[in-house]
Amino acid sequence: MRKERPEELVERPSKSQLKREMIELQALGKKIIDLPEGQRAKFPLSDDMLAAIEETHRIRSHEGLRRHMQYVGKLMRKEDLDAVRAVFEAMEQQNVRRDASFQRLERWRDRLLDDDNAFVIFVEDYPHVDRQALRQLIRNARAERDAGKQPNSAKKLFKLLRAELDL
After folding, report:
1. Roughly what angle, to the nearest 10 degrees, separates helices 15-34 and 47-56?
2. CA 51, CA 158: separation in Å to the nearest integer?
3. pLDDT tens profile 92-118
4. Disulfide-capable partner of 101 in 11, 24, 80, 167 (CB 3.0 to 4.6 Å)?
């Protein structure tokens, strides 16, 4: 009977598991490739990976692109995946904050258009706002809404609110 050595006890991942990991790394690389260049610059990537990303945009052949994405997946193994995922998480949090701010502005705009008391509350919360311009935009937006016209004044009101709330 053969005695097992400690190095033989270590289980290697299955071929299926390795393939799943490689597909995940390729998908992560694809997400980075699909980002605009300005956002891609935020990632801590090696020079080889950056060169592979640039090369991706020059490949036109479907099969060539498939093979290149396998190469990108291979390069992703050498990258700091925790740092890459942290950048994606930070970008997601920024999007969530932006969406929440946008919704807050929409709620203020809708309140100002639907409720006369909202003007007083808004002016109390934001005393530096140009009251005359705000009142004029509210009046015009209500008139446009009642007449069924394009909401040009409502858009201008939204821009004024965004400027006032620094969003």
Report:
1. 70
2. 42
3. 999 999 999 999 999 999 999 998 889
4. 167
